[in-house]
Design a protein that fits this description.
The structure holds two protein chains of two kinds. Chain A has a ten-stranded mixed β-sheet, with helices on both faces. Chain A is α/β, with parallel strands linked by helices. Chain A contains 33 helices and ten strands. By secondary structure, chain B is of the alpha/beta class. Chain B is about 40% helix and about 20% strand. Chain B is built from six helices and five strands; from the N terminus they run H-E-H-E-H-E-H-E-H-H-E. Chain B has helices at about 5-10, 20-30, 55-75, 90-100, 115-120, 125-130, and strands spanning about 10-15, 40-45, 80-90, 105-110, 135-140. Chain B has a five-stranded parallel β-sheet with strand order 3-2-1-4-5, with helices on both faces. Chain B is globular and about 45 Å long. The chains are: A alpha/beta, B alpha/beta. At the A-B interface, helix 1, helix 8, helix 14 and helix 27 of A face helix 2, strand 2, helix 3, strand 3 and helix 5 of B. Chain A: Keywords: Cell membrane, Membrane, Transmembrane, Transmembrane helix. Chain A: One of its GO terms (cellular component) is plasma membrane. Chain A: It is a multi-pass membrane protein. Chain A: This is Amino acid permease.
Chain lengths: ~750, ~150
């Protein structure tokens, strides 16, 4: 089995059990009593309405999840589409929502635990809270040490739960009495107006389906399995809840249904005398199992959200460090665990606060996710290509927004205020911390800022106010980063960079990469700053002067690094660069040393790469050998830029098979016309490719080669370039590699 | 040096588990590098089959690249270094699978100790590595001074 297959080993059943296992928890075991007291028998409708709202959102999550199977789920989509301000709200909201939910599940665990065994209350904590604290701590501990349970365990747990609930439903059906269900006041003794507040109360029972999306990158065939698992688990759970709650209310009259352990009470009533004891114990154990599995899954999902946020620098990546022995994101787990404990201790007296706060924060995230979906579709990002599309667009996501926000109206002011405080906290966090650190601007922000003239001014100003600080630097125009390490090649590289920036109306970012030997710490290197900075200053002053010859804006920076080429990739990503120009020597220098990493890197180029092997640089006579490879768009662009800015004379060479000269000529004419080089000199040769290039290069000064296959750059770095002629030529050679379409998509989406 | 030991150490596979382990393993291996032709550094990402791992796979991959990078950077100037990242449910089994696959002549590792509790929870990899190995296994003594 390949490594890739091993990394993606979650099948449909596993995915489904994540959803169902998270949803069937305290919600169905604890809330029917509380909700029935508030709504009467129509609480069944409350559950169904909750399922419908969840289903509309599930459709949107499915589309987003198949377009971007990435860790982080909701946060990830919102951050990409709406930018880091809303990303912060979604990420922190989802995280806090999960912490509230976990606290709620733990309280549910405590409630059933106290029916099984006496637990002492301590100080201001009730016995239920003490049980919940013990349980919550245990869940955190299990996640901290990373229990080695296999997927089978989760499947067994969920199967067992479904079996227990199924058994209850069967036996309950036998004791079901419609007269008990309707009671004395009819189906809606408190009026139908009580339905939606009931939904707001029980909606926590549906949190969980979106968690499947947070592990989407580990799913086999996510394009198919993700939508089936998400939509399927919501459907199954909704039907199950409707049946279970109907039966509970048909067995125990609604005003009498227990507020803390309703399923136990209903079981006792439904099972005949002799079996009641056993049945109650089994149901109670089921409740403990269900709440534990929900809490466990939520803690796990919160670590995924932290990871995604840390990667985008919305929170510090320090949180995501993996424990060297247990291989768990222990810091993230401890912090989430701390929040859960605090929530249990401070708010655990009142189950409703916890469950509703969890629901509110999730509903806010769902609304933002639907908005993100609309932005992705409307911005028409070519990289956005979901395998699953919501039906009836744009009705479905709009309905998702309306239903999610609408339900907030029925939650109650106390919980709304609490959740609003968290949302405000997320906004404060963004402006105080994340705005300075994060890079991505989000599709919406880019869309508005690049169409500054046609947008209302207030909108543009607003977008600029909330944009991350890095966006102010990038600002639409294309950026050519020139990576300099050697004064000798400075002028050649800056000439290339300047020409391309001028041609595209962009700017140049001259970067001096100082490679520090590994034995020297970066701090020590910085201490020798005077020497270094003098050298760096001289180099960058030259660079600035060279760029100014082209009359293009130029910025400079110096990077100290152990990692050389890797750092160039990193800087290209951070500064959202469009093209990197670097020297062959610089690329080769790091060769071999970090090969493993570099292989990964060069397989996923962050932008176009131009690598110059300089031999007396002179761009006046350009030879462009092409076979129409996927990077030839880029090499043609470079040739056009040189023709436009330094009046280069361009010849295009195509090496045809023996006897195919005519068709070769036709191909080349068409290719040149397509690439704006119709007036260039067109050469068609036959025979050996290397020899033909060598012959044509003799009276020319610069050979520009587009990579014909992936990984050209990586081979340059490792010194295993197949076309050895490129190293043997007497003229300068420029290698051009453009990221594959797939990598462009990955660059934009993560 | 006899020919057997030359052959034995010809191509050594070194599993590294963490940042700190990579540094310490390199330091521990350094005294013997004269006899070593080639080093393959390996990081095994533990996977639980069909279950959601506690840590995101992407994070594990990033970390693996960093750990292996340390070995390359530290030993690369003395000896040829290859790197591998492997996924496996059983770290020890995967180490040997990779050793066979890479055609390594021996597996060299640094016993990482750990308290009894940690061994109980995380499993005692050292003991399992030296039990019925398909390739010769060397337990490296700790280097006297660790390279920071």
């Amino acid at each position: 089995m390949s490594d890739e297959e091993l990394a993606k080993d979650l099948g449909l059943v596993s995915a489904m059990t994540i959803g169902i296992g998270t949803m069937i928890g305290a919600g169905i075991f604890v809330l029917p009593g509380v909700a029935a007291r508030a709504a009467g028998p129509v609480v069944v409708v409350s559950f169904v309405v909750g399922g419908v709202i969840a289903m509309v959102n599930a459709l949107s999550v499915s589309e987003l999840g198949t377009a971007m199977p990435k860790a982080g789920g909701g946060y990830y989509y919102v951050n990409r589409a709406l930018g880091p301000l809303f990303g912060s709200i979604a990420g922190l909201g989802d995280w806090m929502g999960l912490a509230f939910a976990s606290a709620f599940y733990s309280i549910g665990f405590g409630q059933y635990l106290t029916t099984l065994a006496p637990v002492p209350g301590i100080a201001f904590l009730s016995d239920i809270q003490v049980g919940a604290l013990v349980a919550g701590s245990a869940f955190v501990f299990v996640n901290y040490v990373g229990a080695k349970e296999t997927g089978g365990v989760q499947t067994v747990i969920v199967t067992l739960l479904l079996a227990i609930l199924g058994l209850f439903a069967l036996q309950g059906w036998l004791s079901f009495d419609y007269a008990t269900l309707t009671g004395e006041g009819g189906l809606a003794p408190l009026g139908y107006g009580a339905v939606l507040p009931g939904t707001a109360l029980v909606f926590v029972s549906f949190l969980g389906y979106a968690k499947i999306a947070t592990v989407a990158e580990e799913l086999k065939n996510p394009g198919r399995n993700l939508p089936i698992a998400i939509i399927g688990s919501v459907a199954i759970v909704t039907v199950l809840y409707a049946i279970l709650v109907s039966i509970m209310l048909g067995v125990v009259p609604w005003p009498e249904l227990s507020q803390s352990a309703p399923l136990t009470q209903a079981t006792r009533a439904a099972f005949p005398g002799g079996f009641a004891g056993v049945a109650v114990t089994v149901v109670t154990l089921g409740a403990l199992l269900a709440t534990a599995s929900s809490a466990n899954a939520s803690i796990l999902a919160s670590a995924r959200i932290n990871f995604a946020m840390g990667r985008d620098k919305i929170v510090t990546n320090w949180l995501n460090e993996i424990h060297p022995k247990f291989a768990t994101p222990y810091r993230s787990i401890v912090l989430t665990g701390g929040l859960i404990v605090v929530f249990i201790a401070l708010l655990g007296q009142d189950l409703e606060v916890l469950s509703k706060a969890a629901s509110v924060l999730h509903l806010v995230v769902y609304a933002l996710m639907n908005a993100a979906l609309i932005v992705f579709r409307e911005a028409d990002a070519p990289e956005y290509d979901p395998d699953f599309r919501v039906p009836l667009y744009p009705l479905t996501p709009l309905l998702g927004i309306v239903l999610s926000l609408g339900l907030l109206g029925f939650v109650g002011s106390r919980e709304l205020a609490l959740s609003a405080a968290f949302v405000v906290g997320a906004v404060v966090w963004y402006f105080a911390y994340a705005r300075r650190h994060t890079d991505g601007q989000g599709l919406l922000g880019e869309y508005i800022r690049t169409r500054g003239e046609t947008m209302p001014e207030t909108v543009v100003t607003a977008a600029e106010t909330v944009a991350p600080e890095s966006a102010a630097r990038a600002d639409g125009a294309s950026t050519v980063m020139v990576a300099l390490s050697n004064p000798r090649t400075e002028r050649a590289l800056m000439t290339l960079g300047g020409a391309i920036a001028k041609h595209e109306g962009g700017q140049v970012l001259a970067t001096h990469v100082v490679q520090v030997p590994d034995q020297t710490s970066l701090a020590a290197a910085a201490a020798q700053r005077t020497n270094l900075s003098r050298e760096s200053e001289r180099l960058l002053t030259d660079a600035r002067a060279d760029a100014e010859r082209f009359d293009v804006p130029v910025e400079t920076q110096t990077i100290l690094s152990h990692r050389g080429v890797e750092e160039v990739f990193e800087a290209a990503r951070t500064h959202d660069v469009d093209t990197v120009v670097m020297g062959y020597g610089g690329a080769r220098l790091a060769g071999g040393r970090v090969e493993g990493t570099l292989d990964e890197l060069t397989r996923d180029l962050p932008c176009d790469f131009l690598v110059l092997n300089e031999r007396g640089f002179d761009p006046s006579k350009v030879l462009l050998p092409t076979a129409g490879g996927y990077s030839s768009d880029l090499s043609a662009g470079v040739a056009r830029a040189l023709r436009h800015t330094v009046d280069a004379d361009v010849s295009v060479l195509y090496v045809a098979d023996e006897g195919e000269t005519e068709s070769g000529r036709a191909f080349l004419a068409e290719w040149a016309a397509d690439h704006g080089l119709a007036d260039a000199e067109l050469l068609v040769e036959t025979g050996d490719v290397e020899r033909a290039i060598e012959a044509a290069a003799t009276d020319r000064t610069l050979v520009v080669v587009g990579a014909t296959e992936e990984g050209l750059l990586s081979r340059v770095v490792r010194g295993s370039l197949a076309l050895s002629v490129l190293e043997d030529l007497d003229t300068s050679v420029l290698l051009a590699e453009r990221p594959h379409a797939r990598s462009v998509r990955e660059r934009l989406f993560g | 040096m006899s020919t057997e030991s030359m052959v034995l150490l010809d191509h050594v596979l070194v599993p590294v588990a963490s940042d700190e382990d990579a540094h310490a393993t390199c330091a521990a291996l350094r005294p013997y590098l004269d006899a070593v032709e080639r080093v393959t550094a390996l990081h095994v990402i533990e996977k639980r089959p069909n279950a959601v791992d506690k840590a995101p796979v992407e994070k594990r991959r990033e970390d693996a690249a960093a750990f292996l990078g340390i070995v390359e950077a530290t030993l690369g100037d003395v000896v040829g270094v290859d790197t591998r990242t492997a996924f496996g449910t059983d770290v020890v089994e995967t180490v040997f699978e990779e050793a066979v696959d890479a055609d390594a002549t021996a597996v060299a590792f640094r016993p990482r100790g750990g308290g009894r509790l940690a061994r109980l929870l995380a499993g005692d990899t050292a003991t399992r590595l030296v039990t019925a190995p398909p390739r010769p296994v060397l337990a490296l003594p700790e280097a006297e001074t660790e390279v920071a």
